[in-house]
């Protein structure tokens, strides 16, 4: 027995915040961490030059029964949130 609607159309993103679509009580915790060149330790105040390799880890913490993956389409570096100067760190859908 199926419930809901079934169609052959491709799924289209709705851009609704995930937390509101799963459950009101659950909270998702996102993290973006920077690691050293060996991926063995996290760097707390990293500083990089333009063109230098950066080891980034994006993660989300949630209920183990609801496994999620994080896909990073774009990431920019800038001196501040409102700065016009921006450098693309990740582009073209990762």
UniProtKB/TrEMBL annotation:
The keyword Disulfide bond applies. GO terms for biological process: binding of sperm to zona pellucida; egg coat formation; positive regulation of acrosome reaction. Keywords: Disulfide bond. InterPro entries: ZP-C, ZP-C_dom, ZP_dom. One of its GO terms (molecular function) is acrosin binding. Pfam families: Zona_pellucida. Residues 1-94 form the ZP domain. Transmembrane segments: none annotated. It comes from the Eukaryota. GO terms for cellular component: extracellular matrix. This is ZP3 protein.
């Amino acid at each position: 027995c199926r419930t809901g609607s079934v169609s052959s159309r491709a799924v289209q993103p709705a851009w609704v915040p995930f937390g509101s679509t799963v459950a009101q009580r659950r909270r998702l915790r996102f993290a973006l961490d920077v690691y050293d060149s060996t991926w063995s330790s996290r760097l707390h105040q990293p500083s990089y030059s333009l063109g230098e390799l950066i080891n980034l880890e994006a993660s989300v913490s949630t209920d183990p029964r609801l496994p999620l993956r994080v896909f990073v389409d774009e990431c920019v570096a800038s001196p501040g949130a409102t700065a016009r100067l921006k450098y693309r760190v990740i582009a073209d859908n990762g």
